[in-house]
Amino acid sequence: MPLDLTAASSRVEIPIAWRRPLIWLAAGIAALILIYRSDWAAMAGQWWDSSTYNHILLVPPILAWLVAQRWPELHRLTPSGWWPGLILFAAAQLLWVLGAFAGFSLLRQAGAVAMPAALVVSVLGPRVSAGLAFPLAYMAFLVPFGDELVPALQMVTAALTIGLVHLSGIPAAIDGVFIDTPAGLFEVAEACSGIKFLVAMIALGALVGNVCFRRWSRRIAFMIVCIVVPVLANGVRAWGTVFAAQYVGAERAGGIDHLIYGWFFFGFVIVLVMGLGWRFFDRAPTDPLVDVSALQASALLDRLAGQRIGAGPLLAIAAALVLAGQGWALAADRLEASLPGRIDLPTVPGWHRTDYRPLLWWEPRATGADHRLLGRYEDGQGRTVDVFVALYSGQAEGREAGGFGQGALVPDSGWAWQGEGPAEVDAKSERLLGRGKVERLAVTYYRTGDLLTGSNMQLKLANIADRLLLRERPTMMLILSAEGRPDASAEGQVAAFRQAAGPVAPWMDRIAGGR
């Protein structure tokens, strides 16, 4: 049977009505990637270097495949410039600006990804964009997210593990994310939280839900499975490590766990989830992913499509929005509040300064701070409290008081997060464990303007407001910390010091003012 070359070529030929919009779109996206290259480079670095985000390397080819699957239907539509799409573009630009103001890379990167998507909507119009709705939404998976869930997942994994350990008859005690068994002390570390497979399974669940299901009820059910199964399976995996260690030793069990965790675990979870969902797939492989007839017949899309704009004015407005956002961010980056030339730790009634000699060295991190102080106070009863102060003239990328790896818990320092400390008003309380033997309580306060908080999110919102208004205000971080001792609890020592020092906010203001 002879090949129909004419039919084959017609499937790949780009209609005339599409050629100019695609050229404009390609040029616009290339310009956006060039302008925001630092954000794209940072994301690409995480895709390549972080095992949590290695799966994102597959997202660009998946996006290309999703568009290719829709092209045989989409090319029947006629693209047209759509000015309301510029509202989405402005919102994406504002998202990037807010991220730049807060030094919050997740927001910056989300804005950098959202701008090309908004440009697609603006250049191709509402009908074509409706046909591309899922690929445009799937672009969100280009943004590395999930680190914020690690502490919660550590606690969930620890709870699942200790439950299974007790069910298997092994005597064990749990303290935060540490599990003490006859074979040794086990930590549910960040790498054991299961975040890398959870975020990858969410991305897979969204893809399978769109491609393999028609009914939304089944899509939602499948996504729930993609969230629940990896979390439960990770708890079983952690239990297996603890269980095996009782017979082969902790070191050997850890080696086996790393092999299974890295090579087989994710494959097993994928097979399990796909097996659970397979019999419920209700979209045939030959079914089109886009119903062009419905898009053409939609009265709503017909009304929306009437809001047209030429490609030239559209791209000019988009360029003006980019320039405004860049200029605004540059002006905010230059904000520097005036600070005293020198600060010192104030006198506290009943307490005196003493040499800093911790059982295990502990030094918080405050990258980019203009002033840093670390000192120890002691009272007449021998109770000791360590005080760390960091004062910033401004907040920007690389110098955020609440940034990752900043504050009481420094990565790879020998200290591990043990769990949340006692509830505090306007503060973040954490229990740390050093080298598996030294316990420490760290209570963190942030101060800017009239705000006193322990919430990193509240601090970022306040910093954003200052930079939106181009308002110069210093930011301060205060950490009160104490080591746990047989004769004095860390919580009691910190509480006694705080009572003697008086209200925290005025105390911090005195330090920031150099008084």
Automatic annotation (TrEMBL):
The chain crosses the membrane at residues 21-38, 50-68, 80-104, 124-143, 155-174, 194-213, 220-240, 260-281, 311-331. Its main location: membrane. It comes from the Bacteria. It is found in: Cell membrane. It is a multi-pass membrane protein. GO terms for cellular component: plasma membrane. It is an enzyme of class 3 (hydrolase). One of its GO terms (biological process) is proteolysis. Keywords: Cell membrane, Hydrolase, Membrane, Protease, Transmembrane, Transmembrane helix. The keyword Cell membrane applies. Its EC number is 3.4.22.-. Residues 317-505 form the Methanolan biosynthesis EpsI domain. InterPro entries: EpsH-like (IPR013426), Exo/Archaeosortase_dom (IPR026392), Exosortase (IPR019127), Exosortase-1 (IPR017540), Methanolan_biosynth_EpsI (IPR014263). GO terms for molecular function: peptidase activity. The keyword Protease applies. This is Exosortase A. The gene is xrtA.
